[in-house]
Amino acid sequence: MGFFSSAEPLAVGDAAPAVSGVTETGTPIALADFYAAQTYTLVYFYPKADTPGCTAQGCSLRDAYAELAEHGVAVIGVSNDTPAAQKAFKEKFNFPFTLIADSDKTVIKAFGVPTTMGFAKRQAFLIKAGKIIWTDYSASTAEQAADVIKVIQAQA
């Protein structure tokens, strides 16, 4: 494993990856099935569970979750932490959304998210009907939910 991976992130208009992962409970999740059941899916990537920036990002999405849900947005967080670490993170901060424990980086690689020292870069992808409709390659820890809502409102 190198210090950096220079993946090419997915872009607006690309098909959302139909890969599978493992949730914080150890349950398999097929992302294609998840997308199909939602109007919008926000897949956000963060470096490490229960660290300051990642906690701020998760908490901002948690705090805006009701409003996101009103707009039909389901949220999935992804890092390469273990299921146990993701579960503890989710429980500690009462996240109402699924976290994927991407220990083998299958989901991270499928979305083209770069890594530094093995940790995913903070990025986000909004999916509708199986396609990427918005990307955030420098995701804000505090403004991500507001940014997503603006995108959805602009489409209305």
Please write out the topology:
Blueprint: E1 4-5, E2 20-22, E3 28-30, H1 31-36, E4 40-45, H2 52-63, H3 65-70, E5 73-79, H4 83-93, E6 98-101, H5 106-110, E7 115-116, E8 119-120, E9 123-128, E10 131-136, H6 144-155
Parallel strand pairs: 4-5, 5-6
Antiparallel strand pairs: 1-7, 2-3, 4-9, 7-8, 9-10
Features:
globular; 156 residues; alpha+beta; 3-stranded antiparallel sheet; single chain; Glutaredoxin; 6 helices; 5-stranded mixed sheet
Q: Could you characterize the architecture of this molecule?
A:
The protein is α+β, with helices and mostly antiparallel strands. It has one domain: Glutaredoxin. The protein contains six helices and ten strands, in the order E-E-E-H-E-H-H-E-H-E-H-E-E-E-E-H. It has a five-stranded mixed β-sheet with strand order 6-5-4-9-10. It is globular and about 40 Å long. The termini are far apart. The model has no long low-confidence stretch (mean pLDDT 93).
Specify the number of helices.
Answer: 6
Domain module tally:
1
Number of distinct beta strands: 10
Biggest β-sheet, characterized?
5 strands, mixed
Alpha carbon gyration radius: 14 Å
Could you say what the CATH topology is called? Glutaredoxin
Q: Biggest sheet, strands in spatial order?
A: 6-5-4-9-10
List low-pLDDT spans: none
CATH superfamily name? Answer: Glutaredoxin
CATH C-level category = Alpha Beta
Q: State the shape.
A: globular
Residue share in helix: 25-40%
SSE order in H/E notation? EEEHEHHEHEHEEEEH
Rounded to the nearest angstrom, the distance between the terminal CA atoms is 44 Å
Task: Estimate the mean pLDDT confidence.
Answer: 93
Structural class: alpha+beta
- DSSP strand content: 25-35%
Task: Please name the CATH architecture.
Answer: 3-Layer(aba) Sandwich
